[in-house]
Amino acid sequence: MFKKILIANRGEIALRIVRACKEMGIETVVVHSTADANGMAVRMADESVCIGPAPSRQSYLNIPAILTAASVTNVDAIHPGIGFLSENEEFCRMVEAHGFTFIGPTPEHIAKMGDKAVAKDTMRALGLPLIPGSPGIVRDAEEGLKIAKDCGFPVLIKAVAGGGGKGMKVARSEEEFKSSFTMASAEAKAAFGNGDVYLEKYLSHPRHIEIQLLADSHGNVVHLGERDCSVQRSHQKVVEECPAPGITAEQRNFIGDLAADCARKMGYRGVGTMEFLFEDGKFYFLEMNTRLQIEHTITEMVTGIDLVREQIMVAAGHPLPFRQKDIKFDGHAMECRVNAEHPETFIPSPGKITRYHAPGGLGVRVDSALYDGYMVPSTYDSMVAKLIVHAKTREEALMRMQRALEECVIEGIQTNIPLHLRILQEPEFRVAQFNIHWLEKTLARRKEEGRKAAL
Question: If you average pLDDT over residues 427-446, what whole number do you get?
Answer without folding.
Answer: 96
